[in-house]
Structure formats: C-alpha cells, structure tokens
Design a protein that fits this description.
The longest helix has 19 residues. The protein folds into five domains: 118 residues, Sandwich (Immunoglobulin-like); 116 residues, Immunoglobulins (Immunoglobulin-like); 122 residues, Immunoglobulins (Immunoglobulin-like), CATH 2.60.40; 140 residues, Immunoglobulins (Immunoglobulin-like), CATH 2.60.40.10; 93 residues, Immunoglobulin-like, CATH 2.60.40.2550. The chain contains seven helices and 49 strands. A hairpin with a 2-residue loop joins strand 38 and strand 39. The strands form twelve sheets. Strands 12, 13, 15, 16, 17 and 18 form a six-stranded antiparallel beta sheet that branches. Strands 1, 4, 5, 9 and 10 form a five-stranded mixed beta sheet that branches. The chain is 8% helix and 41% strand. About 1% of the residues have low confidence. It is mainly β.
C-alpha cells in the first residue's frame, strides 16, 4: 500500500514538472530608430505592438520603451517547440505594419526565450554588438541612361565617412550596371545614414541622390540636410542593395530640359550684408554637386541688379522627380561687408530646410522667383526701431528620460544654462555674431517652474523673421541642441515674426512671443505677419473653406474659412506642381470665421491651389491668377 502511495506521489511530481516545463515565456525586442528618423513614428505619442499567431493575430501586445529606442514585450505561456509567426506594428502615420513576409521563431524547449533586438522592417537578422560588415550595392542604370559615363566614379558617403570628406569609392560596374563597396566594417546595432554619389571627379563635386520622402528607407538625419537613406547593422555579413534614387530605371521617364532658377537679393542688400555690385550668389543642389559644378551653380545678375538667375540644362533627367536646392552667397572679402561664415540660406518657407522643385523635362521650366531666405522687403527693421523680442521655453520635455532616451544628457536646472539660438546665417550676420557666438549670444534665465526666458534686442538694420531653436550647456561646456529633424529636412527650426500693421511697423515693442516647448520633432512655423487675417466675430458650427473672391484675381484675393474649435491652423498656397509658394497661416487660432488676404504680386499668372488643415479637417480649392 505504502509503495503504491509513494509511486503515486512520484508520478504526480513528475507530472507537475512536465506541465510547468511545457510552456515558454518569449521576450521580443524591436529597434524603432528607422521609423522614428523617417518621421512616421513619434516615440512621445505612438505605441509599438507585437502581433501574431500567439493570439490569432488579434489586438496584439503593447511593447514597453526602454528609453533607448528598443521596445520590449514578453509573451507568456507559449507551447514548447512551436513556431510563432509575428510582425511588429506601430500606431504612427495612421498605423503601420512591417512588410511581408511574417517573422518566425521556434519557442524551443526551455522555460524562457529572449530574442535579440532587431530593426523594425529589417529581417531576418538581429544584433548583439559584435564586429560586422556591410556590402553596399547600387544599380546605376538610371543615371547611365542620362548624363553619367562609364568612366565616372560612384561613391557611398554617410555619417560613417564624414560624408563626402571620406566617401568610399565603389567598384564596378562589370556587366550589370551595379557598383559595389565590399565589407565595410561596423559594429552590429550601429544605425547609419548614407547616400550614393556619382561624379566625374571627387565625391564632393558629384551628383548626389535626391530621394523621395515616401521611400521606405528615407530618414531625416540631424544636421545632414535633405533626405538620406538609413539602415541598421545586424550581426555578421550584411548586404544592402538599392536602385539609384529608389527609381526603377525601366519605368522612369527621362528627358532633356532647362530649369530657370531665380532669387531676389534686395533685402540682403538693403540691410547691408550683401553688395549687389561686387557680391554674387549661386544655386546649390544635388544636380551640380551642391555647387561643385560652378557652370551650373553661379548665377547671373539681371537688369534689376537685385535679381539673379541661372538657366540650368538637364540631360536625360528623371521627369517628375523631386530635386532639392538652396541659394548660397559668395561675398567679396574686399568689399567691406561682413563675412558669412555659413553662406547657405535657411528658407523661412521650409523652416530652414532645402527648397524643392519637380523637374518637368521642358525647355522653359521656371522655378518661381523667391526672396533670399524668403525675407520680403516689408519685413525689414530700420535702424532706430529698437525692437525687442521676449522668447521663452518650457524645458520639461528636456528633463524627461522617456522622451529624450538613454545616451542623451538630460537638462539639469541646477547646473545647466539654456540658450536661444538663431539658426539663420543672414540674421546672424546682421547681429554681428559669428558661428560660435550665436550659440551663447542669448542666454536665458529661469522665469518660473521649468520655463526660461530672455530678451533679444535686435541690432538694426535687420529683418523681422526669427528662425531658431533652443540648446542647453553644462558646466563643462558641452551643448545639447533640439534636434533639427523634420520631413524632407524641413521644419527643423521654429519661425516666428513680430506682429505688424504695415511694412516696417510693429504693433508691439517689446513683443512677448508665445512660450515654446522643448521638442525634437518638426518645429512651429508662423505665417507672414502681413498676411491680413480678419476675425469676423462669427461662431461657426463646423469647419469650412470657401471659394476665394474675386476669382480670377490680380494681384490679391480674399480667402474665408471657419474653425469651430481652437487649435493649430494651416493655410498654404501651392502651384500646379504641388510646390508650396506661400504659407499664409501656420499657428494656433481660436474658434471663429476669418478672412485672409492673399497677395500674389510676385507670382506669375496661372492656376494655384490653397489648402486648409485644422484638426482632422483638410480641404483644397483652386484659384486663378490673371495678370
């Protein structure tokens, strides 16, 4: 009897061990740097989820952020030796799944299984921080159909080569139009930004890729200009194979053409930082190696000495492709004007980012005339105005480890100093600041809570357009900046104006700007202060955008819209190519019905579109300018 009892206990014990060992707790990890840098995922507001066969592809499991861009979740009680099919999903951009195929893992025979981190939408590998290599390949059939010759050189340049300064020469093309850089060394877990270049000589003077913001591997790398490619390095030997500009060479239409670029330098001349009699400007873009090809960069002065233009020929260039560019000043050092340490403009209409145009493959394409930096003549601040602007920033976000992430020095109110920083070289020159001085020219003092404030007294003559961000430094002198990232390299900096009631006339002096909040996302962009906005004191019951009147018009017209709730309102004007030509409103508004006067005196005749975005409301209407 006793033997039977003992045998029963043993069998029961063995059964318990067997039952507890038949399930596995599986930990999944995903690195979200690629979607975060692409602008499709905001760690501050969006969730990451694991979805898969473990729950019948149901609602999934929300993953936790470890403050290092890696999101983690443990799924408990999974059967041993079973294959789990799964994908990662995030709620940004309306909800985004990883692309096919599904991921797959076998649970094995242990009680726990922890998977190494993997990059979102990269498969099948993971990373553990070991020495690894990448072989880069790029299919150059598209440029070879155009102006590229087989004798030209292809490079890869990125944050790991100090961009063009240490660009890696690729070999090829053998017989397949593919150029290769073999076994470039990295540590797995590294995240890289890069681009391909083709050139008749050095990388810096070559033709850089222009990549559409919608492409899957496009990111906005801090302080690296327009769109770049991004990739995360996995354990072992990686291979990254791409088409030039992510464009199918067999589907792309190529055409010869000419594009006329135009810029007005009257404001820069008026405020005394550019002399139209001795100084010059250039257009810098990917199609001329960002100024390396001087024949396609240096602009010509017109009959009006303030107006500069250059007709650039394009040979077998992709039609309807996006091309990024900026204007660049070349100041004669003998002329007496201050030197521009940074000669690039920071267009207000792009929040400091690159301008963009769509190539049409026509012989007479014109990019609309613009003022340098988008600073119009009515914005100048005459000497003797003594304009003062009070800026303030709430630093709470900079103190939050969940928002800033591991590896970022968090703001410490006890030891650190906050600064307001102009990021517009033209404005810096009017203030007499060099590149380093601009960083500490406007220190801020604690106002209350976590809010800091400072007063900028503008040195005049200058102009009423403030393009800026914030930074803080510790006692050792190290500086942490707000990230200058945004879609297409745009909106990396805030844009604000002092309210005006007429050209050169300011309604408030000193002016207290609305309080900003530290952010690493795209920045606020106000509309032109003389875009006449009239509040009709009517309380609407819904959103609406009415047809402009008159229509057709010359040169101005009235646009009426209604917003029933307070919030951010954007009203912008686009040409038929979809290029933004005017930002009328881009700021917080209270509920009401408004009339906005749009002045198109600098635009040519044609069809234009105006678009209202407020809350979840988006509407576009067409109007015609006839001169």
């Amino acid at each position: 009897m006793m033997k039977n009892f003992i045998l029963t206990l043993i069998l029961t014990f063995i059964g318990v061990i067997t039952l507890t060992a038949q399930t596995v707790d599986v930990t999944f990890q995903v690195d979200m740097r690629l979607p975060a840098l692409s602008g499709n995922f905001d760690p501050a507001t969006d969730d990451v989820e694991l979805r898969g066969s473990f729950d019948g592809w149901g609602a999934g499991a929300v993953m936790a952020d470890n403050n290092d861009s890696i999101y983690v979740v443990t799924v408990t009680g999974q059967p041993q030796s079973t294959n789990i099919f799964y994908k990662f999903y995030h709620t940004g951009n309306g909800g985004t799944w990883e692309s096919d195929p599904n991921r797959e893992v076998n649970t094995g025979t242990g009680s726990t299984l922890e998977l190494d981190p993997t990059f979102f939408n990269e498969r099948p590998g993971s990373y553990t921080g070991i020495p690894s290599t990448v072989t880069f390949k790029v299919d150059m059939r598209l440029p070879l159909r155009g102006g590229m010759e087989l004798t030209d050189t292809v490079y890869i340049a990125g944050n790991f080569t100090d961009w063009q300064n240490g660009a890696i020469k690729m070999t090829g093309p053998d017989t397949d139009s593919v150029y290769t850089a073999v076994d470039v060394s990295f540590t797995s877990g590294d995240f890289i930004a890069y681009k391909f270049i083709w050139s008749t000589g050095a990388a810096g003077s070559g033709n850089w890729e222009s990549i559409d913001n919608e492409d899957f591997d496009v990111i906005h790398w801090p302080n690296a200009g327009d769109n770049n490619r991004g990739w995360g390095i996995e354990d072992g030997d990686n291979e990254v194979s791409r088409l030039w500009e992510n464009t199918d060479p067999n589907a792309a239409e190529l055409a010869d053409g000419n594009v006329l670029f135009q810029a007005d330098m009257s404001v820069m001349d008026e405020v005394g930082i550019f002399d139209n009699t001795i100084d010059t400007i250039r257009v810098h873009a990917s199609f001329n190696g960002w100024g390396g090809d001087l024949e396609r960069a240096v602009m010509n002065q017109g009959l009006d000495p303030n107006e500069w233009s250059l007709n650039v020929p394009f040979v077998q260039w992709p039609v309807n492709g996006l091309n990024y560019y900026k204007f660049w000043v070349d100041v004669d050092p003998t002329g007496g004007n201050p030197d521009w340490e940074d000669p690039y403009e920071r267009p207000l209409s792009r929040g400091g980012g690159n301008r963009v145009f769509t190539y049409l493959g026509q012989n007479n394409q014109e990019v609309p005339m613009v003022y340098y930096d988008d600073v119009t003549p009515d914005l100048t601040i005459p000497a003797g105005t003594d304009l003062q602007v009070i800026f303030s920033v709430d630093m709470t976000y900079a103190m939050d480890p969940d928002s800033q992430g591991i590896g970022t020095y968090l703001f410490n109110p006890a030891t650190d100093t906050v600064f307001w920083i102009s990021e517009q070289p033209a404005f810096q020159v009017t203030q007499g600041w060099n590149t380093n001085e601009r960083i500490r020219a406007v220190p801020m003092a604690l106002q209350s809570g976590n809010t800091y404030t400072s007063t900028l007294t503008v040195q005049e003559p200058s102009f009423n357009a403030f393009e800026y961000r914030y930074a803080y430094s510790d006692t050792s002198g190290g500086v942490v900046y707000e990230a200058d990232t945004g879609p297409g390299g745009a909106w990396g900096y805030r844009v604000r104006y002092v309210p005006m009631d007429a050209p050169h006339s300011f309604t408030q002096n000193p002016y207290t700007a609305p309080t900003d909040g530290w952010t690493n996302s795209a920045k606020l962009h106000e509309g032109h202060p003389l875009a006449v906005v009239e509040d009709l004191n009517l309380l609407p019951d819904g959103y609406s955008l009415q047809q402009n009147y008159p229509n057709p018009f010359n040169p101005s017209t009235k646009i009426r819209f209604s917003v029933p709730e307070p919030g951010l309102v954007s009203l912008k004007v686009f040409n038929v190519l979809g290029e933004e030509v005017e930002s009328l409103i881009n700021y917080e508004m209270v509920s009401g019905t408004y009339d906005v006067i749009f002045d198109a005196s600098k635009l040519s005749s044609g069809i234009y579109f105006y678009k209202l975005e407020a809350g979840n409301f988006v509407q576009t209407k067409k109007m015609m300018l006839l001169k």
